[in-house]
Here is the input.
Amino acid sequence: MQSLLNMSRGIDAFTRWTGKRLAWLILLAVVVSALNAIVRKSFDMSSNSWLELQWVLFSMVFLLCSPWTLLDNEHIRIDIVNNLLPKQVRNSIDVIGHAFFLLPLTFVMIITGGPFFVRSFEINEQSGNAGGLPQWPAKSLVILGFAFLLVQGISELIKRIAVMRGIIPDPHASQPHALEAEVEHLVEALKKE
Here is the structure.
């Protein structure tokens, strides 16, 4: 189990490193969007390639940073119900969810996304919009994003099993949830008034 936990730590480090760098693409997408809007309004010119570039940049962040969201335990769940459950039940739900839902979904998306990308690459598929970008680089993001999510899902499964066996402490136990932190901040602000 220790070798699996070492592998999990390596995966987590890669996920965090990648996510922190790719998140900056949001800023680039905003700059591209703003410049495109300024040029369109000021000079009555527009470019489909710049418009599509901001979509691709956002897609890169959405797909390639989703493993970072999973790593930081910020993925979507019903926190109100989840927090009412005993810790052992929450851990079991996580293991079942990762093993029977997340990992199979990532496999399906990688397997079905492969031919989708390969065909697009083979024909050098271009945008349907005049002056748009090639489509195959954006389609490759589906495979890459779900491959990253698959690897991080395996890491999360390893850690959750280790937590259930008492081998490691729960990495999320001391981490305040973002919503809870925001509520505490608001309560403190109200007390000061």
